[in-house]
Amino acid sequence: MTAQTVQQGDLVTVIGLEVHVQLETDTKIFCGCSTAPTDEPNDHVCPVCLGLPGALPILNEAAVEAAVKIGKAIDADIPEETRFHRKNYYYPDLPKNFQITQYDEPICQDGDLEISVEGERRTVTIERAHLEEDPGSLQHVGGGGGIDSAEYTLVDYNRAGTPLMEIVTAPDFRSPDEVRAFLAELEEVLEYLGVFDAERDGSLRIDANLSIIPEAEIDGDTDEIGQSALEAANRTEVKNISSHKGAQKALAYEETRQKNAIQRGRAVEQETRHWDESRGITVSMRSKEEEKDYRYFEEADLPPLRVSGWKEEISIPELPAARRERFESEYGLSEEAASKLTSTKQVADFYEDVAGEFDPDLAATWVADNLLGELNYRDIDITEIEGRLEEVTRLVELVAEDEITAKNARETVLRSMLDDGRTPDEVVAEEGLGKTGEDEVQQAVVEAIDENPGAVEDYQSGDDGAINFLVGQVMQKTGGSADPGDVNQLLRAELEG
Ligand SMILES: [Zn+2]
């Protein structure tokens, strides 16, 4: 590429993604071996996933179901018939010397996913999504732990044959922030579908290609880029990204690196770069890869797969975007609250349970702010307290019926429930948090005024802060079970009356 000297403002970042999603199935895609994590290397293997001669693959129905669900969720075309191909290359993590994947007849084509970045909506085109098997994993031992300096390498085929869905987007992203928003949305969708576990190591692997092109090459109306401009720009492929946060960091780094090079009149190399998460940089991979020829050919051991009836038979739940919108219109929630409450299906389901019984706003405060806040603080996922959600509902009931103050409910009862496992009723009884009757509060107000003439005088001579001291006195007398706001009002009424 002939480097041009251009202004920063004239440059546009163009990014496309290949996302490998590990599908949550009990067994591998072409054999009955378990996909459960295990510390023992080469524990979950058999002749099929070891590629022994004569072993034949049998397609896992659950993987196809998951693929159809994803296809429906991204509104893709799912053809009547789809096919598997062999992608040939030699590498020790690939026992058969080919990977079973899909080539020109993938199970999903032409889908899309809508994202929202800083309040602006954008539709990302998903060109294709296809099923394939994961290779095994290599462990380089000795030296620096890298492939270049290792003394030897161990091969573990536990992962070989794990079902993957490779999701390929158009070069639709204009910033690393958009990429992050897309991946976060995609993760939510996949979790709603029940086909993906974000907590699992290596469940999401992302390759991103990034190029910088002159703004003039982009159609202002359609946002389309001229093919010649894309081809003229040297792009880098960034590998080894494993999360939406990592993607944003890696691509922000790469974007700056390329823009700096262009502005200094240096050429951007067309190359593959490795994201080094711990150092926060991308590094050129030593071997300059040549244009690959995988010699794809049809997988003769697997017949064509007819999925024509599946699309109608397989149903998918309401997806996060639709649910967010419904939460806003049905419960009158803000976009922010609706977004928090739909972050996982479990949270959204629980919110709807609580909102069905009590005021939706109260339910939103309790689920989005109080419960999720305390869970995040303790690094607990809502699924871990699934059996105790009824207790949380009971706590909201105690607040809704005015039996305890919101402050006590939040700061004492909820925290005790999570930290020592007591039920809300136990905490209320044992800590004496039942709300004090109105007469009792009124009496404490009168007493506090009688006992603190100094503070009363200060208040009456215009020191409004003195009221806080009196509120404190009343709270002490009622053992903290009065509502401080009510107390404040009662004190003012008494002092001015
Ligand atoms: Zn196997």
Terminal CA distance: 84 Å
Give the percentage of residues in beta strands: 15-25%
pLDDT < 50 runs, ≥5 residues: 1-8
Structural shape: elongated
**Helix count from the secondary structure assignment:** 16
Helix/strand-derived class?
Answer: alpha+beta
Strands in their spatial order, largest beta sheet: 5-6-9-1-10-11-12-13
| DSSP strand tally | 15
Characterize the largest beta sheet: strand count, sense, and whether it forms a barrel.
Answer: 8 strands, mixed
The helix content, as a percent range, equals: 25-40%
Number of discrete domains:
3
Please state the average pLDDT score.
Answer: 90
Bound molecules: zinc ion
Q: Provide the gyration radius in Å.
A: 30 Å
List keywords for this structure.
497 residues, alpha+beta, Arc Repressor Mutant, subunit A, eight-stranded mixed sheet, 19% strand, binds zinc ion
Q: Could you provide a short overview of the structure?
A:
The protein has 497 residues and is of the alpha+beta class.
Overview of this protein structure:
- The structure is a single chain.
- The protein is an alpha+beta fold and 497 residues long.
- It folds into 3 domains: 8-313, no CATH class; 320-431, no CATH class; 438-496, Arc Repressor Mutant, subunit A (Orthogonal Bundle).
- 39% of the residues lie in helices and 19% in strands.
- It contains 16 helices and 15 strands.
- The protein has helices at 61-73, 176-193, 227-232, 244-263, 310-313, 320-331, 335-341, 345-357, 360-378, 389-400, 406-420, 424-431, 438-451, 453-460, 466-477, 484-496; strands spanning 11-22, 81-82, 85-88, 98-101, 108-117, 120-133, 137-141, 152-156, 163-169, 204-214, 236-241, 271-276, 281-284, 297-298, 305-306.
- The strands form 4 sheets. An 8-stranded mixed sheet has the order 5-6-9-1-10-11-12-13.
- Helix 6 packs across helix 7 (335-341), helix 13 crosses helix 15 and helix 13 (438-451) crosses helix 16.
- The longest helix has 20 residues, at 244-263.
- The model is unreliable at 1-8 (pLDDT under 50).
- Zinc ion binds at residues 28, 31, 33, 45-46, 48-49, 161.
